Amino acid sequence: MRRAAFFGIAIALVAAAPWLLHTPYWRGILVICAMNVLLALSLNLVMGYTGQLNLGQSAFFGIGAYVSTILVKTYHWNFWLASLAAVAFAGVVGLALAAFAVRLRGHYLAIASLGFAVITYQVLVNWEKVTEGVRGIYGILPPVGSTVGLFYLIAGIGVLVYWLMDNLVRSPVGDTLRAIREDEVSAASLGVRSYVWKAFAFSIGAGVAGLAGVFYPGFVGTLVPDAFNIVESFTMLAMVIVGGMGTMIGPVVGAVVLTFLPELLRGFGELRLMVYGIALTLVVLFMPGGIVQLVKRK
Amino acid sequence: MLSANNISKSFGGVRAVRNVSLSVPEKSVCALIGPNGAGKSTMLNLLSGVYQPDAGTLTFGGTSMTGLPAYARVRLGIARTFQKIRLFKQLSLLENVLAGFHIHQDTPFWKYLVVGDTGRFREEARELLAFVGLGARAADRAGALPYGQQRMLEIARALATRPKLFMLDEPAAGLNPAEVDFLLQRLVDIAKRGTTLLVVEHNMDLVMNVAQRVFVLDHGEPLFEGTPREVQANPRVIEAYLGGEFAA
Amino acid sequence: MSDLAALVVQQGLNGVYLGCLYVMVALGLTLIYGVLNQINFAHADFVTVGAFTAFFAVTRLATKVLGLPEAAGYLLSLVLALGVGALLGLAINAAVFAPLRERGDELRPLIATIGVSVLLENAQLALFGPIPYQFDSPFGQHTFHIGRIFFTGQSVLVIGVSALSIGALYAFMRFSFWGKALRAVAQDRETAGLMGINPGLLIGLTIVIASALAGMAGALLGPVLVLTPFAGATVVVKAFAIVIIGGFGNMQGTIIAGILVGIIEAFTVQYLGSGLIDLVVFVLLLVMLVLRPTGIIAERKEENV
What we know:
The complex is a heterotrimer. Helix content of chain B is 36%, strand content 24%.
């Protein structure tokens, strides 16, 4: 029953948000927030529940954006089909990355995933025949005309993804993932084939990041590779950790806080971007459970 | 039931185990003993699949097990505990035991996405916790338990896999006499239910009281094999443990 | 000398020049890992800070304030960058590595250094803006040649300073008391502590040395880099690639790997163009990680259960 109440409140908040923040500017921020929530959720499964430090999510975000846009603009696919294809493609690439990644531990995995993100970025920049490189692709239309509509679309998908992931995490699958996070060797002694599950988590994470990606170009109108460099990966990392790694609500909280906080600090000029770095460092040092941990104490 | 033939394993030039053969009959209780550094834990790791042998073969229930990775042996019916306790510290006791039912989960995947937790093995998990005396603390964090109880939790979790052969690596280490007694009773109960046991142990009381067959290792090689009585009386065993001063 | 031979030697030399720069960056990383088993993600940002320090030292401080000739100004900037790097190292050790040392958590310090990296980048963004800064080393103006091979003063300086630094570091590690104590701590921290060595002090010393190297590397790299606050990001993955290829914590391996990467880059620029160099290096990195995660000079470790 508590869960039903929770989702009820969530849906109510989502429905009300564009009317509480009703200027075009803030509604745009809401769209970004919804995308950030999806991105944070995508990283959460791999990092929070399976315990792998994955810095490559920016690549899948970019893959989702570029594959869907190219399919629509160059090959005249329908947006929804193109998005489906883009998400599937991102998931497959995620599986391929996992083929490397699952053998690696801690530091190595972090660097390999980072390397993958950089390679993908370089491909986006240099494969100009297909991606137009830094010149960019212009005149991209969003799937839904109004900003409010776009927000409802993305946020709605976000709620759905959250619900599915939450179920998954509460199920024996979640037990398995957390077992892998806590101690792989004893998980193996219980019959867990850890590399299969890690690859699974990676793949889902990649797909969801790709899903966030398909909405990005339409919202901004143009598509350049710069939005998908490794700084994005760090931003997602900050959202998951500041919100509270290892819980479902944590990344959502982190995404919301880190989307709105820089906006509220606009008065400080460029310094407001330091919020990400400061928040991440402070949380890791003093509050490893994130904001969620803070709330739980009370 | 379990048969190891001429197993050898080296680590970077150091021979941990050499030409060890042993055979654990079905539904028996066996013990693997030896002085420190004898290779007992290594042997257990080889049997459970954490290490792969350099030479030799392993069979279980008639089928070959050599080369099979650790996670696959669990489905054959082998479970184990570790000398250095490896619990899922951040998870609750119940969650730890639930994780043990992994190989028995047969719900179709889509159901997990849509329904989430079916609560399938919850009852059985609670029963296992009660069996090891931890029923009241099911919701506590595993890392918060005192050492002796952590050990029992590890046993409960391993039992969740419903093993045919249960191997324990020095389960009595670090336990006080009352806890050792409790452990002994549990092992007797487990054996009574038809599970085969192989216990690596230092604690002679435990071994003498529960084992039917004892294998002795020394410096990675097999030294002796027999009933507890025979082992206790064997001069070479005594010499290995005491360094030859009191040999008959 | 034939045309081809001259070209190959020239590019080889350029490669060594580039390689020395990379080695200077990567050496600090590998040092920290060797002693602490930790990765400092902010390391590359220390390089950027060093480069900016050099920029301001050369263009403002030395010439306008102190009235020094440009060459001296550049040399001064090297020293300053060394100092700035050392200070940053001190700060990050005090703030991140020392407090988290006891917990034994592998990943938390790494994530904290990511936070510091983001912080440094955005701080510099706020201070300096996103537009690339450009400055030339006065040594870059002089060229001279031996036969058909050309050098610039800068390349000589870089190779010279790098060789000197590496030599000094090596001598320090091998022959001085502190150096030996450092190696002891790297091998077995507890025992070293029991023998009267203060591991905390030594670890701090290592980080300071590593970061100072990074700062100076930044000053040396300054004229060659596209100097924005995010310059560190372009260097960081290459530096990691070098450290992994050479083997984490392995000084000789890192040096070899660094020079190798420099040479590869020098040759591929000629034939493939600059955009693809990064790709080549990173693919190499991933291949290394799959085949030999412990590096070229490998050591095997089985997990103790």
